[in-house]
Specification:
It contains eight helices and 23 strands. By secondary structure, the chain is an alpha+beta fold. It folds into two domains: 148 residues, Alpha-Beta Complex (Adenine-n6-DNA-methyltransferase TaqI, Chain A, domain 2), CATH 3.90.220; 157 residues, DNA methylase specificity domains (Adenine-n6-DNA-methyltransferase TaqI, Chain A, domain 2), CATH 3.90.220.20. The strands form eight sheets. Strands 2-9-5-7 form a four-stranded antiparallel beta sheet, covered by helices on one side. Strands 14-21-17-19 form a four-stranded antiparallel beta sheet, with helices on one face. Strands 4-3-8 form a three-stranded mixed beta sheet, with no helix packed on it. Helix 4 packs antiparallel against helix 8. The radius of gyration is 26 Å and the shape is elongated.
């Protein structure tokens, strides 16, 4: 058993001003990692550059096998870490993160798996000093954490097992993300752009698909009534494109909502007031719910004949349709936008034959079944990985 400082050290981030930031591909630039880049895997989609003159010592350059550690962040994120692979630029770290660098006595992957494990992440957070808005990691306290240090060959064996389990876990998550994208891809393949009607379907309007919308009331929540019988949905319950029942606020027990305002499984909901990027979002209520009430800023679809929630949901989620909703909505750019029912119902679209719409819904249901299996497999892989972590650092692996 050794202290972390016996086998590793922190390289503190450098400070600079916003006006010092330059494109990372500029002549004389050095990439500078910041908290945004510290994700489960290092995120290189948005990397800043700074002049090389800010790096005063050679050890301030990030090396393959370092860990990027978030050192100043909200309490639940301080200590979060990323493995550093081979990077395409000379790279340093900014002021709100640090590089944790192992010495000769510890295998870098063993150090990564130990530091990233759930138990150690809790211990690392407890090494932080909490201020009003941010937690700051105490390097000294963190370096005093104790870890088990078997011989290097055993460290490498343990790290290899955890790497394999981690690869399986990540593969399951990638498969699930790919499945989640399939409905939108299939919609484009089968129907094209229905606003432009580039597949030359029969022309119609949204009113040919739906009879209209139900709406709720503008309700004042009771934030102190955490044991409330009923809760009113927030617009954030639908704006992700997926229904989130937890996004709701408690209502006063003195208010008895009309039965018609309660949400039920199978409802398709529509955000009629939101920012320009989020107005028009829809979400299917695909779970059993109770005591959730419709607000005035969310509408529920009413159907004309047999309901087609799957097809209509993906029509409304398609980018051409979302752009048309935003174009028709009132409100200035940057403000809350709003749209009326008539403006939605009158949108011109191509109307694919019913049999084709039903075929799309059938395929989406197959994707949903595969998604449920993938989520189960992903949860099993996560549980296996967590179990292996616990055993590895107890010396039982």
């Amino acid at each position: 058993m050794v202290k972390l400082k016996d086998v590793a050290s922190f390289v503190r981030g450098i400070t600079f001003k916003p006006e010092d930031v330059i494109p990372v591909d500029s002549v004389g630039a050095v990439a500078c990692m910041r908290t945004k880049n510290v994700q489960e895997q290092i995120d290189l989609s948005d990397v800043w550059g700074i002049p090389r003159s800010f790096v005063k010592r050679s050890d301030q350059f990030v090396r393959e096998g370092d860990l990027l550690v978030s050192t100043a962040n909200s309490w639940n994120l301080v200590g979060k870490c990323s493995w550093v692979p081979v990077l395409p630029w000379p790279t340093t770290v900014g002021g709100f993160i640090a590089a944790l660098r192992g010495g000769d006595r510890i295998d870098p992957r063993y150090l990564y798996h130990w530091f990233a494990s759930s138990d150690v992440q809790v211990r690392v957070r407890n090494c932080a000093r909490q201020t009003t808005n941010i937690a700051n990691l105490s390097f000294d306290r963190c370096l005093d954490l104790i870890l088990s240090l078997p011989p290097l060959p055993e460290q490498k064996r343990v790290a290899a097992i955890l790497d394999q389990a981690d690869d399986l876990r990540r593969m399951r998550k990638r498969a699930l993300r790919s499945l989640n994208k399939l409905p939108a891809i299939t919609f484009r393949d089968m129907f094209g752009d229905l606003v432009a009607n580039d597949s030359d379907f029969e022309e119609g309007t949204v009113a040919d698909l739906i009879a209209g919308f139900d709406t709720g009331k503008n309700l004042a929540p009771d934030p102190d009534n955490e044991d409330a019988t009923n809760r009113v949905l927030k617009v954030s319950a639908v704006t992700s494109g997926y229904f989130r029942a937890s996004e709701a606020k408690p209502l006063p027990d003195s208010y008895a909502p009309p039965l018609a305002h309660f949400i039920k499984r199978g409802d398709l909901l529509f955000s009629r007031a939101n920012t320009e990027a989020l107005i028009g979002a829809t979400a299917l209520v695909d779970e059993a719910v109770s005591n959730l009430v419709l607000p005035d800023k969310i509408w529920r679809f009413k159907w004309r004949g047999e309901p087609e929630p799957t097809f209509v949901h993906h029509l409304f989620q398609s980018q051409p349709f979302r752009r048309e909703i935003s174009r028709r909505a009132s409100g200035t750019s940057g403000s809350m936008k709003n749209i009326g029912k008539d403006k939605v119902l009158s949108i011109l679209i191509g109307l694919p034959p019913k049999v084709k719409r039903w075929e799309f819904a059938r395929q989406v249901e197959e994707y949903a079944n595969a998604g449920r299996n993938a989520r189960t497999a992903s949860a099993i892989a996560d549980a296996l990985f967590t179990s292996l972590q616990h055993r590895a650092f107890r010396g039982d692996l």
